Amino acid sequence: MAPRKSVPEGIRITKVGLWFIILTVLVAVPAANTGNNALYLVEATMLSLLVVSGVISRQNLRRLEVDFSPPSEVYAKEPFDIGFELRNRGHFWPRWLLVLAGTEQTRSVLVPYLRRRSAFQGSLELTATRRGILALEHAHLASIFPLGLFRKGMRYRIDLELLVYPEVRSSFELHWRGLGGVGEQPARKIGVGPELHSLRAFRLGDDRRGIHWKQTARTGELVYMEREAETGERLSIVLDNAVGKLDTAAAEEAFELLVSDAATAAHHYLERDCEVELVTRNEVVGFGRGRGHRRRILEALALLPAVARQPHPLSGSDPAAPALTLEMGDWGA
């Protein structure tokens, strides 16, 4: 990976530095009025510390490189970490008191000491407030060494675009329309499900664990239990995003809550190894299960827009499957 290019951000005075400058001025006034050599010496020392602190703070940022690694998944309103590796390419001197931050909302990471020709690995914690594309352009690296009087900064390009999934809530309570609890749909096929399909005479090669011992004792012949095949649970999530123009903050929030409900339902039932499909006005993500299918549904929901109202209703692809229908009602215009 190529090293990230850095751009100087200038040098700023810290609160400690501001108080130090005020103290320097306060010492300079009596030194000039009295001509006291001791005060002149103190004043000269303080001015020297200001100059040396500014120069060293700038040198402390030389020959540093930063690489960033994106997270695998990002959810709205949930903190996530962006990994970084800070490398000191200097041959002779270590680096001290380095501060790395992303955006203004990012919690800064302090690197107290970085040996020469070594690296420090850590992570920046961020939180995305909304679903969709989150563009991260820059990270800021600053030095407060040696005395914390100045903060010299460098800006490093991140150039990351993250797809933020909708918020997935931990508790899920929705009104299930047409759902009487998503239950098993036993097929009338022979298989290994828990439901009894039929009884028949035992055949050579049948599993003895399937023998119905009560019927065997009653008839005097081995009776075998055939089970029904399991089709597993299925759920069709029908999200009608034809809500018209969202011209108020309340309408936007209601639509985002609707998308979050769909994401939460998909996450909840896919975790139970159910077959889930997503039906919207834009696309249909057919029935499937597993982590890959979950990712496809969340990606579709992350980029789902509100579209103009349409007269015909939405429905799932399988009329026999239970459906969760999510609609906004009269919010949009």
Outline the structure in words.
- This protein is α+β, with helices and mostly antiparallel strands and 333 residues long.
- The chain folds into three domains: 6-165, Immunoglobulin-like (Sandwich), CATH 2.60.40; 190-228, no CATH class; 234-326, 3-Layer(aba) Sandwich (Rossmann fold), CATH 3.40.50.410.
- Helix content is 26%, strand content 35%.
- It is built from five helices and 15 strands.
- Strands 1, 3, 5, 6, 8 and 9 form a six-stranded mixed β-sheet that branches.
- Helix 1 packs antiparallel against helix 2 (37-59) and helix 4 (249-271) packs antiparallel against helix 5.
- The longest helix has 23 residues, at 37-59.
- The chain is elongated and about 120 Å long.
- The model is unreliable at 172-181 and 183-188 (pLDDT under 50).
- What radius of gyration results from the CA coordinates? 33 Å
Q: Uncertain segments of ≥5 residues (pLDDT<50)?
A: 172-181, 183-188
Query: Could you report the average pLDDT, rounded to the nearest whole number?
Result: 85
* Percentage of residues in helical conformation: 25-40%
Please tell me the CATH architecture of the largest domain by its name: Sandwich
CATH class type of the largest domain: Mainly Beta
Give the helix tally.
Answer: 5
Order of helices and strands: EHHEEEEEEEEEHEEHEEHE
How many angstroms separate the termini?
A: 49 Å
**Main sheet summary:** 6 strands, mixed
User: What is the total tally of β strands?
Assistant: 15
> What percentage of the residues does DSSP assign to strands (E)?
25-35%
CATH superfamily of the largest domain: Immunoglobulins
Strand pairing plus helix content: what structural class? alpha+beta
Looking at CATH, which topology of the largest domain would you report?
Immunoglobulin-like
The rough form would be described as: elongated
In total, the number of domains comes to 3
